[in-house]
Automatic annotation (TrEMBL):
UniProt cofactor note: Divalent metal cations. Mn(2+) or Co(2+).
UniProt cross-references to PANTHER family, sorted A to Z: METALLOPROTEASE TIKI, METALLOPROTEASE TIKI1
Lineage: Eukaryota, Metazoa, Chordata, Craniata, Vertebrata
Gene Ontology biological process terms in this record: negative regulation of Wnt signaling pathway; proteolysis; Wnt signaling pathway
Family (UniProt): Belongs to the TIKI family.
Bilayer disposition of the protein: Single-pass type I membrane protein
The protein's required cofactors: Co(2+); Mn(2+)
Organism: Urocolius indicus (Red-faced mousebird)
Gene it is expressed from: Trabd2a
Role description: Metalloprotease that acts as a negative regulator of the Wnt signaling pathway by mediating the cleavage of the N-terminal residues of a subset of Wnt proteins. Following cleavage, Wnt proteins become oxidized and form large disulfide-bond oligomers, leading to their inactivation.
Protein name: Metalloprotease TIKI
UniProt GO cellular component terms: plasma membrane
């Protein structure tokens, strides 16, 4: 059965071989059982691992957070049409109200609470650019909330690489992801 799975693993034939593995930004527990053994083996045997971004680097996380913000002095209320802003605010109030019922006992057992999680995801939302608010809203669903606290596949692999003392790096800089998204105009968002 494993051999019939599409592994999203490409081999670059050289000595030693190099591998290119396509990942997806979802909690690793949703996909780990479907990652074929050849991909897991290639990861285990690799000494150097490069990721899209270095999600274990505090600078990367800080820069990602900063790039999402509107220019100083601007708020989302200033750039969104009034009706959309009002509906967004109502939706976020609804999500905040519903989040405690979306949390799993396992999350609560690990000390994750709805108020904390809501603030971690949606905190400072009125200062964010519309494209980042759209991405944030798309992640505020019951199924996504239930999986919070579980690293996405990229982060899980980065943490594993660190644990196994592999050399790591990134193929992109935060700016290379941020600037194109921030360059979208309102109608594109």
């Amino acid at each position: 059965q494993q051999s019939k799975m599409n592994s999203f693993l490409w081999t670059i034939k050289r000595d030693p071989p190099s591998y290119f593995f396509g990942t997806i930004h979802v909690p690793y527990t949703r996909v780990w059982d479907f990652v074929p053994e050849n991909s897991k083996k290639a990861f285990q045997q690799s000494h150097i691992v490069y990721f899209e971004l270095d999600l274990t680097d505090p600078y990367t996380i800080s820069a990602l957070t900063s790039c999402q913000l509107l220019p100083q002095g601007e708020n989302l209320q200033d750039v969104l049409p009034h009706d959309i802003y009002r509906r967004l605010k109502q939706h976020l109030e609804y999500v905040k109200l519903m989040m405690p019922s979306w949390m799993t006992p396992d999350q609560r057992g690990k000390g994750l609470y709805a108020d904390y999680l809501f603030n971690a995801i949606a905190g400072n939302w009125e200062r964010k650019r519309p494209v980042w608010v759209m991405l944030m809203v798309n992640s505020l669903t019951e199924i996504d909330i239930k999986s919070r606290g579980v690293p996405v596949l990229d982060l899980y692999l980065a943490q594993e690489a660190e644990r196994l003392m592999k050399q790591t790096g990134a193929v992109e800089k935060v700016e290379e992801q941020c600037h194109p998204l921030n360059g979208l105009n309102f109608s594109q968002v």
